[in-house]
Amino acid sequence: MRELHERCFVRLGAQHFFWQIEDDQIETGEVVKQILVGGAQLGDTMQQICFLIGDFIELGVVDPSEAMEATAGQFALRTLNRMLQVWNTQALMIYTVNRTEFAMVTGQQTYTLGTGGDFNISRPVRVDMVSILVNTGGRPIEIPTEIVTDDDWRDVSMKTTPSNWPTKVWMTGNVPLNDLWFWPIPQDGTIKCVIYSWGKTDNFASLNDAVVFPNGYEEAIVTNLAMFLASAYGVQPNPTLAMRAAMSKDAIQSLNVEPLWATSDDGLLSNRGNSLAIRSNGYQVDR
User: Fold this and answer.
1) From the CB of residue 90, how many other CB atoms can be counted at a distance below 10 Å?
2) Full-model pTM
3) What residue ranges define each of the domains in the chain, with the CATH number in brackets?
4) Helix, strand, coil proportions of the chain in percent (round to 5)?
């Protein structure tokens, strides 16, 4: 007998049902012991991590009529988390950018970014942009702040220069709290710092975690995780699975890409304007 600890999501028409197999010695296909009727409407992309079963079926190491062993489920869960951590570092796998405002303190130059820090959010993998929100009598103005390199920060000779608000920020990249050094040192206690950071998928704690992803991510996760698991089980992925994994990830990346812009002198383009179309694989990206 095999252990099965899975919580799955089923949608029947407009009604959502959850079922839970609780006993340790239940084979797939037996009568479900508990049925929970969901009270809230859930999105079409709402799934449970029971799609881990699908990975073993894709690899052919588990028959659809068999249950997944608990140890195999935990190993797959750890592998899933490692795969998503890698995806969190890849710009074209990031489907959202978070904009978060933080209050600043008069005379304070250094702030920590991360859970429990001055800017108390989960530490972002990457901060894309920083700006300062200046209060001008009820109509705040957002002013971009330059993110400088290590060399640029070294070249700031008067690091304790004061001003109403900063124009530069240097990030050390420390873990678990990233340090942000602002210059000049802000003297206006009403300003706010705005952080634009990559959204990320946090690690899943258990097989019962509910997850919500945009369209296309379930196929990409199932097929690519199967590829990750293949070597551990001594399985050679079939070409169809490899193709599905690559195509599903490519589709997501093509959706998340930001168009590039090129400009040129007006005289070179005559009456056509000062923007150049960028073409890629026969498709015009922008103009």
Assistant:
1) 14
2) 0.70
3) 7-91+202-256 (1.10.3230.20), 97-198 (no CATH)
4) 25, 30, 45
